[in-house]
């Protein structure tokens, strides 16, 4: 099938904070996918992002586009928990004659919290695991821990740990760590343990990491592992009620879920692991069914 | 006096992680100063940095240059605490025929920690306050709390809080806070209190801050104040043994020391405040005296 023969029935779009992915859909099956290393903001907004993602497909007027992510920054469309991850119906805005349906995020007022895509991954996980109860941890630049019971999100809590790891490892005085092939899991586990026991010392632990790199006391390659371990350990400390003695699922990119799973395993907490993209597509497919009703 | 008449006896240089400052010295007095918004690394190294700073002065061969900061990245010159902030004597390396004397930093092996200029500010503070005992908190991208007794640094602990505030407020998903004229001290105090009582929730507090900005729940202008308060509050939580019931001095830029002083004051801890540049110059002047002995 050549590119110009790709004529989707509908289009699914996952707008993450660091990547955009679209699927050309025929019913419940993806016939093609497109990816951009951009956010909605850096792509120039919703319209230009949709145009860039679907540029090589034939998408006729009237086609439904279902999108999750930070589409509406005003927060007007947010839904207070407890509630089902998806609403009863989706409303549309027009772009190029397409009917664009944005999945509303979940919200808590005090302290302020919201989801911008996590609700759709949760819906996808529940669509693939009917009747599942427990806590879903969605990893990424923002991680979200969501307690799910009887098909509803009962409570959730987000953390900026992933974004802090990204910033500190790329933009900070720690960014001069020598390149490594991967994360040393022993160094990672030690840092998780240090941070879990003294989470308030995060900025001191980070300073020790840099001092170790400057003085040569830090083993080569240990830097990135310890950095991730310190931030994930601090998150586990604050998220303890969400994972201690809970039925757990981890939804994210494989490199992220591997670290969270190892950190949780060291605390005796096992977790089911699921791929973020697959859960997003399942959630968007469930959301697409709401349009027809 | 025109620029080409500036002929220093010696040159004092404070190489900070975000700024370089040099003073043309006649005995104990500065006759001119030069400033660059750069680090030694971004200026191209020690030689080019010295050339750029002193380019408009007449600095003859044999002139002594005394410099503090991250001059020697190898850590070989570090001095384990407890020790006096300055060594007994300074050794020199040559540049352009000048005798460049770098003040060695202080070090602790486990957990790794080091100073790269703080030791010189401490020496300056003690030169101006003879016989002073207590704890000096040196604010900045890296903050250092140093316990001083009988002229020696007994222990110290550094934190990366300042750099995290800078990164999060300029490079992160929080960086879209609307511009403000300054820090709202009530918002700052509330965030310090939140973070002091639950320091392990830093990444959750930061996520709440972003969610509040997205949903409009955060008052305009509260963002930068709460960001600084969360990081400084977490630092105060971990540094408690350094400030609780101690004779305290804050050394830093005025905008930093004002925030730390307010946060400490709310915990009932008063502090003497001193300017970082003035303490650096006093410390470099004390270090210069070591060359002659």
TrEMBL record, chains A, B:
<dbReference type="Pfam" id="PF05035">
    <property type="entry name" value="DGOK"/>
</dbReference>
<dbReference type="GO" id="GO:0008671">
    <property type="term" value="F:2-dehydro-3-deoxygalactonokinase activity"/>
</dbReference>
<dbReference type="InterPro" id="IPR007729">
    <property type="entry name" value="DGOK"/>
</dbReference>
<protein>
    <recommendedName>
        <fullName>2-dehydro-3-deoxygalactonokinase</fullName>
    </recommendedName>
</protein>
<dbReference type="InterPro" id="IPR042258">
    <property type="entry name" value="DGOK_N"/>
</dbReference>
<dbReference type="InterPro" id="IPR042257">
    <property type="entry name" value="DGOK_C"/>
</dbReference>
<dbReference type="GO" id="GO:0034194">
    <property type="term" value="P:D-galactonate catabolic process"/>
</dbReference>
């Amino acid at each position: 099938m050549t590119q110009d023969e790709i004529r989707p029935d509908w289009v699914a779009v996952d707008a993450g904070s660091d990547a955009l992915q679209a699927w050309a859909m025929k019913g419940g099956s993806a016939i093609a996918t497109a990816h951009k290393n951009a956010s909605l903001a850096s792509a120039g907004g919703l319209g230009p992002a949709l145009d860039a993602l679907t540029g090589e497909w034939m998408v006729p007027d009237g086609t439904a586009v279902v999108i999750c992510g930070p589409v509406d920054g005003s927060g007007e469309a947010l839904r207070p928990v407890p509630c089902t991850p998806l609403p009863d119906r989706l409303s549309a805005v027009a772009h190029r004659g397409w009917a664009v349906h944005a999945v509303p995020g979940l919200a808590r007022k005090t302290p302020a919290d919201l989801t911008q895509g996590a609700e759709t991954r949760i819906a996808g996980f529940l669509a693939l695991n009917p009747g599942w109860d427990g806590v879903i941890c969605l990893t990424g630049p923002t991680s979200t821990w969501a307690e799910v019971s009887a098909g509803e999100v009962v409570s959730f809590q987000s953390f900026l740990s992933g974004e802090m790891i990204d910033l500190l490892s790329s933009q900070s005085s720690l960014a001069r760590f020598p390149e490594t092939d991967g994360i040393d899991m022993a160094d990672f586990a030690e840092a998780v343990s240090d941070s879990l026991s003294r989470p308030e010392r995060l900025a001191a632990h980070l300073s020790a990491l840099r001092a170790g790199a400057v003085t040569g006391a830090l083993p080569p390659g240990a830097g990135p592992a310890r950095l991730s371990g310190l931030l994930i350990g601090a998150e586990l400390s604050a998220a303890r009620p969400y994972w201690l003695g809970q039925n757990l699922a981890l939804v994210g990119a494989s490199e992220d879920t591997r670290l969270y799973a190892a950190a949780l395993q060291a605390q005796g907490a096992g977790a089911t692991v699921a791929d973020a993209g697959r859960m997003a597509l399942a959630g968007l497919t469930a959301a697409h069914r709401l349009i027809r009703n």
